[in-house]
Amino acid sequence: MELSLAFRQSARLIDSDNSGDEDDSDQEETTEKSTEKDESSGEPTSKRKKLEYEETKIEITVAQLKEMELRGTILRPIYSEKLSELRRVKLETMFDLQKASRTTIIVSKTDTNMSQAIVLEGSHRLSTVQDLHCASTRYSNFRIPMNMFEVEDGIFSTAWSNCLSLNFSDSFKSHSSVSSRVDLNLIPSVILDIGMETHSNEQFRTIGKYSSNDSTSFIFKYLENTVNDTEIERLRNHPRARGEFWKKLVKRGLVLAAGPSKVSMVPFYILLMKLLSQMTSLKKLGAGKFPTANRIFINVMSASLKDDAATAELLSGYPSKVGVIKLQNELRKISSQDNAQLNEDDGKSDFIVHDDFADIEDSSHCFFYRRIPKDAIQMLLAKKLKIIVAEPNGECIHSASQWPAELIEMTTVSNVVYNGNGEVRSCLVMGQGLLDPELRYPPPSSSRKLSNLISKWFPGAKEATIHTVKGHFEIPQ
Known about the structure:
Elements: H1 5-17, E1 30-34, E2 52-61, H2 62-66, E3 69-72, H3 80-86, H4 91-94, E4 103-108, E5 116-121, H5 123-129, H6 134-137, E6 143-151, H7 153-162, E7 164-165, H8 170-173, H9 189-200, H10 202-207, H11 212-226, H12 229-237, H13 239-251, H14 266-272, H15 275-286, H16 296-306, H17 308-316, H18 324-335, E8 351-354, E9 365-369, H19 377-383, E10 386-390, H20 394-400, E11 408-414, E12 424-430, H21 450-457, E13 466-469
């Protein structure tokens, strides 16, 4: 039975005919969207063209679906174990929108017979339906709720030729098998945008039971396909730009907000890694052994930019040869290589004491206790000093607000570094060269020498000399 234009039209009407059975969010809805990039927005550089698509909520019957040719595996591969599991699930349960996500398909605007569809969400379920014998199961007229996206024929044809069939052999389904993944580099960006919007939907992702590997792999491939090398290099070198980049993706509905853990940004940081570390990370991800605690993936990215081979080798030993704490510490060492690394007992922590702040050379490392005078703030800013203030008072903290937010951090330190008894005290660090904001959590471990404390918070330090001013470093006994 060939699908007809009448079927395409009736499929759209089914939802509105039954609108009294569902809430307003499930009634027929058609939306047109454009993926034209706003050049002035600074959004990720991509290969997008001006392409429109329509979204419609529909229902089609099992009989109608069985006449269609289906392809998919864009968002994730097919797992034979999942197919075997679904054989034992009733269709009513399989497509219950309280328990399962709404299936999503893409069709060509010019395919009036609706004979072909690319499945974005629900691939396992629709593949299972195509194996049903309608006569014996009496499910011929069972209606399946769907989101349908219509795209231009050329876009659909390109994607279709690179997607995988959802008809699988018995031998595939009888073993613990996983289908191939679609090469997303061959999929038009408008299709990928629809996929990203589908994936970022909390209900789709949660009820659809996406694994972290599938989610991360898809987003990584999307970013790899749409962000060019120049933009990647810019993002590697500018921490603030990374946050702005991600927020724009969030605003477009393509990804989840970063949150304190930044776990949703794992695929983004893998994208920014150098090749060997990137390949090792993807391999670990596939094996379910990629570390995400304490935002360690940011350390991996930073270390890979310094020494890709050493970072990849270190990561490959996790978790069998190295635990997460040691891994993070070693990654920080790699990130700081080529910078002056001071030994804990090298004894090089002498002060150079000046009579006035004006005598301190530009870009010097400075230590002050409790306070810095308000009238010296602009001078300190102009000199681009690297400053540590132990136990800062309220006036000092207020004055520190004149530094850019990314160049200031309130932390804690053992007062043993300035001849105290080992108690933990507040500490203000600020100035040019301050540790990347993304690497400040958890804070660098404390040190027993002031010179080492400075080298950890200012990893670009080239010398150990510490400057101060009379009256601003004396510590009460």
